[in-house]
Amino acid sequence: MLSQWLTMQIGGYDKRVTENFAYHNELRELAVSLNLKSETAKDLDVVLSPDIDILFLLSVTDEVKARLLEATSLLVYTPKFEHFGIVPLEAMLAGTPVLAANLGGPTETVVEDQTGWLRDADEPSQWTEIMQRVLQEMNERELTLMGQNGRKRVVDQFSKETMAQRLDQEIEGMLRRKSRPDPWSQVLLGILAMVVLVGGVVNFARGPGVESQQ
After folding, report:
1. Which pLDDT value is given to residue 47?
2. Could you give the residue range(s) of every CATH 3.40.50.2000 domain in the chain?
3. Domain 62-158+201-214, what architecture?
4. What are the DSSP E strand ranges found in 30-178?
5. Is 151 left (phi over 0), alpha (psi -120 to 50) or beta?
6. Which of 36, 93, 165, 178 could cross-link to 53 by cystine, CB 3.0-4.6 Å?
7. pLDDT per residue as tens digits for the range 63-121
Protein backbone atom coordinates (compact mmCIF):
# COMPACT_ATOMS: atom_id res chain seq x y z
CA MET A 1 0.00 0.00 0.00
CA LEU A 2 1.30 3.46 -0.88
CA SER A 3 1.77 6.29 1.58
CA GLN A 4 -1.41 8.21 2.38
CA TRP A 5 -0.24 11.09 0.20
CA LEU A 6 1.93 10.72 -2.86
CA THR A 7 3.73 13.73 -4.28
CA MET A 8 4.26 13.65 -8.04
CA GLN A 9 6.69 15.73 -10.05
CA ILE A 10 5.52 15.52 -13.64
CA GLY A 11 6.81 17.08 -16.82
CA GLY A 12 8.56 16.83 -20.14
CA TYR A 13 12.03 15.27 -20.02
CA ASP A 14 14.81 14.83 -22.54
CA LYS A 15 18.11 13.51 -21.22
CA ARG A 16 19.87 15.34 -24.07
CA VAL A 17 18.79 18.64 -22.51
CA THR A 18 21.28 19.53 -19.80
CA GLU A 19 18.74 21.43 -17.70
CA ASN A 20 16.32 18.48 -17.67
CA PHE A 21 18.99 16.01 -16.61
CA ALA A 22 20.45 18.29 -13.95
CA TYR A 23 17.09 19.29 -12.49
CA HIS A 24 15.93 15.69 -12.18
CA ASN A 25 19.14 14.69 -10.40
CA GLU A 26 18.93 17.71 -8.12
CA LEU A 27 15.38 16.80 -7.09
CA ARG A 28 16.33 13.18 -6.41
CA GLU A 29 19.27 14.30 -4.26
CA LEU A 30 16.99 16.71 -2.40
CA ALA A 31 14.58 13.85 -1.66
CA VAL A 32 17.45 11.78 -0.23
CA SER A 33 18.58 14.69 1.94
CA LEU A 34 15.05 14.92 3.37
CA ASN A 35 14.87 11.16 4.01
CA LEU A 36 12.17 10.76 1.38
CA LYS A 37 12.06 7.76 -0.92
CA SER A 38 11.55 8.53 -4.62
CA GLU A 39 11.14 6.55 -7.81
CA THR A 40 11.22 7.54 -11.48
CA ALA A 41 8.87 6.20 -14.15
CA LYS A 42 7.33 7.10 -17.49
CA ASP A 43 3.90 5.66 -16.87
CA LEU A 44 1.49 4.95 -14.03
CA ASP A 45 1.50 1.24 -14.85
CA VAL A 46 4.54 0.61 -12.68
CA VAL A 47 4.97 -1.35 -9.48
CA LEU A 48 5.86 1.15 -6.78
CA SER A 49 7.48 0.47 -3.44
CA PRO A 50 4.93 0.63 -0.63
CA ASP A 51 6.82 3.35 1.22
CA ILE A 52 7.46 5.68 -1.72
CA ASP A 53 6.98 9.40 -1.01
CA ILE A 54 7.74 11.03 -4.37
CA LEU A 55 7.16 9.78 -7.89
CA PHE A 56 8.95 11.46 -10.79
CA LEU A 57 6.97 10.93 -13.99
CA LEU A 58 8.89 11.85 -17.13
CA SER A 59 7.19 12.90 -20.38
CA VAL A 60 3.81 11.40 -19.61
CA THR A 61 1.23 10.84 -22.33
CA ASP A 62 -1.91 12.95 -22.63
CA GLU A 63 -3.95 9.99 -21.42
CA VAL A 64 -1.87 9.58 -18.27
CA LYS A 65 -1.98 13.30 -17.59
CA ALA A 66 -5.76 13.36 -17.90
CA ARG A 67 -6.04 10.46 -15.42
CA LEU A 68 -3.78 12.26 -12.97
CA LEU A 69 -5.64 15.56 -13.19
CA GLU A 70 -8.94 13.81 -12.46
CA ALA A 71 -7.53 12.04 -9.39
CA THR A 72 -5.36 14.83 -7.99
CA SER A 73 -6.37 16.74 -4.86
CA LEU A 74 -4.25 19.81 -5.60
CA LEU A 75 -2.16 21.01 -8.51
CA VAL A 76 0.93 22.96 -7.43
CA TYR A 77 2.22 25.31 -10.13
CA THR A 78 5.55 26.89 -9.22
CA PRO A 79 6.77 29.04 -12.20
CA LYS A 80 7.15 32.69 -11.20
CA PHE A 81 6.75 34.61 -14.43
CA GLU A 82 4.70 32.48 -16.82
CA HIS A 83 3.22 34.78 -19.48
CA PHE A 84 -0.02 32.79 -19.42
CA GLY A 85 0.33 29.27 -18.04
CA ILE A 86 -1.87 26.61 -19.63
CA VAL A 87 -1.40 24.03 -16.86
CA PRO A 88 -3.53 25.79 -14.19
CA LEU A 89 -6.37 26.03 -16.72
CA GLU A 90 -6.08 22.34 -17.51
CA ALA A 91 -6.29 21.52 -13.82
CA MET A 92 -9.30 23.78 -13.26
CA LEU A 93 -11.01 22.30 -16.29
CA ALA A 94 -10.54 18.87 -14.69
CA GLY A 95 -12.07 20.14 -11.45
CA THR A 96 -8.79 20.31 -9.52
CA PRO A 97 -7.94 23.28 -7.26
CA VAL A 98 -4.71 25.12 -8.09
CA LEU A 99 -1.96 26.55 -5.92
CA ALA A 100 0.21 28.87 -8.00
CA ALA A 101 2.72 31.69 -7.77
CA ASN A 102 1.23 35.16 -7.35
CA LEU A 103 3.10 36.46 -10.39
CA GLY A 104 2.47 36.23 -14.11
CA GLY A 105 -0.33 34.39 -15.85
CA PRO A 106 -1.91 32.63 -12.85
CA THR A 107 -2.93 36.01 -11.41
CA GLU A 108 -5.33 36.30 -14.37
CA THR A 109 -6.66 32.75 -14.25
CA VAL A 110 -6.71 31.59 -10.61
CA VAL A 111 -9.24 33.26 -8.29
CA GLU A 112 -8.20 33.31 -4.64
CA ASP A 113 -10.27 31.00 -2.40
CA GLN A 114 -12.64 30.25 -5.29
CA THR A 115 -10.67 28.20 -7.80
CA GLY A 116 -7.42 27.96 -5.85
CA TRP A 117 -4.77 30.08 -4.17
CA LEU A 118 -1.93 32.43 -5.14
CA ARG A 119 1.15 32.56 -2.94
CA ASP A 120 4.64 34.07 -2.90
CA ALA A 121 6.98 31.68 -4.72
CA ASP A 122 9.82 32.69 -2.37
CA GLU A 123 7.89 31.81 0.79
CA PRO A 124 7.65 27.99 1.07
CA SER A 125 5.74 28.20 4.36
CA GLN A 126 2.82 29.84 2.56
CA TRP A 127 2.65 26.91 0.14
CA THR A 128 2.94 24.38 2.94
CA GLU A 129 0.03 25.97 4.76
CA ILE A 130 -2.25 25.62 1.73
CA MET A 131 -1.18 22.04 1.03
CA GLN A 132 -1.87 21.07 4.62
CA ARG A 133 -5.25 22.77 4.45
CA VAL A 134 -6.25 20.88 1.31
CA LEU A 135 -4.98 17.49 2.44
CA GLN A 136 -5.90 17.60 6.11
CA GLU A 137 -8.61 20.18 6.75
CA MET A 138 -10.87 20.64 3.72
CA ASN A 139 -13.62 18.10 3.18
CA GLU A 140 -14.66 16.52 -0.10
CA ARG A 141 -17.61 18.86 -0.52
CA GLU A 142 -15.41 21.96 -0.23
CA LEU A 143 -12.89 20.61 -2.72
CA THR A 144 -15.63 19.60 -5.13
CA LEU A 145 -17.18 23.07 -5.01
CA MET A 146 -13.82 24.71 -5.67
CA GLY A 147 -13.28 22.32 -8.56
CA GLN A 148 -16.66 23.22 -10.02
CA ASN A 149 -15.85 26.91 -9.72
CA GLY A 150 -12.59 26.35 -11.56
CA ARG A 151 -14.16 24.46 -14.42
CA LYS A 152 -16.87 27.09 -14.83
CA ARG A 153 -14.28 29.86 -14.92
CA VAL A 154 -12.28 28.16 -17.68
CA VAL A 155 -15.35 27.48 -19.78
CA ASP A 156 -16.79 30.96 -19.28
CA GLN A 157 -13.63 33.03 -19.60
CA PHE A 158 -11.00 31.08 -21.50
CA SER A 159 -12.71 29.00 -24.14
CA LYS A 160 -11.55 29.52 -27.71
CA GLU A 161 -15.03 30.81 -28.54
CA THR A 162 -14.86 33.47 -25.81
CA MET A 163 -11.36 34.51 -26.82
CA ALA A 164 -12.34 34.71 -30.48
CA GLN A 165 -15.34 36.85 -29.59
CA ARG A 166 -13.18 39.27 -27.60
CA LEU A 167 -10.72 39.52 -30.46
CA ASP A 168 -13.55 40.23 -32.91
CA GLN A 169 -14.90 42.95 -30.63
CA GLU A 170 -11.50 44.61 -30.37
CA ILE A 171 -11.01 44.57 -34.14
CA GLU A 172 -14.50 45.95 -34.74
CA GLY A 173 -13.81 48.73 -32.24
CA MET A 174 -10.62 49.65 -34.05
CA LEU A 175 -12.39 49.73 -37.39
CA ARG A 176 -15.10 51.98 -36.00
CA ARG A 177 -12.50 54.43 -34.80
CA LYS A 178 -11.00 54.40 -38.32
CA SER A 179 -7.63 55.28 -36.99
CA ARG A 180 -4.35 53.57 -36.39
CA PRO A 181 -4.52 51.67 -33.13
CA ASP A 182 -2.45 53.01 -30.27
CA PRO A 183 0.46 50.86 -29.00
CA TRP A 184 -1.60 49.43 -26.15
CA SER A 185 -4.27 48.24 -28.55
CA GLN A 186 -1.65 46.52 -30.62
CA VAL A 187 -0.28 44.79 -27.54
CA LEU A 188 -3.79 43.73 -26.57
CA LEU A 189 -4.40 42.31 -30.02
CA GLY A 190 -1.21 40.30 -29.82
CA ILE A 191 -2.15 38.91 -26.40
CA LEU A 192 -5.66 38.05 -27.49
CA ALA A 193 -4.41 36.34 -30.63
CA MET A 194 -2.05 34.25 -28.55
CA VAL A 195 -4.75 33.32 -26.06
CA VAL A 196 -7.10 32.30 -28.87
CA LEU A 197 -4.49 29.83 -30.01
CA VAL A 198 -4.22 28.23 -26.59
CA GLY A 199 -7.87 28.73 -25.70
CA GLY A 200 -8.69 25.27 -27.02
CA VAL A 201 -7.84 24.04 -23.55
CA VAL A 202 -11.57 23.83 -22.82
CA ASN A 203 -11.80 21.00 -25.33
CA PHE A 204 -9.38 18.78 -23.47
CA ALA A 205 -7.42 18.53 -20.27
CA ARG A 206 -4.11 17.94 -21.99
CA GLY A 207 -0.91 19.93 -22.52
CA PRO A 208 2.64 20.35 -21.10
CA GLY A 209 3.68 18.70 -17.87
CA VAL A 210 2.17 19.41 -14.49
CA GLU A 211 3.35 19.42 -10.94
CA SER A 212 0.79 18.00 -8.57
CA GLN A 213 0.24 16.63 -5.13
CA GLN A 214 -2.25 13.88 -4.62
Report:
1. 62
2. 62-158+201-214
3. 3-Layer(aba) Sandwich (3.40)
4. 38-41, 54-58, 74-77, 98-101, 116-119
5. alpha
6. 36
7. 888 888 888 899 999 988 888 889 999 999 999 999 999 999 999 999 999 999 999 99
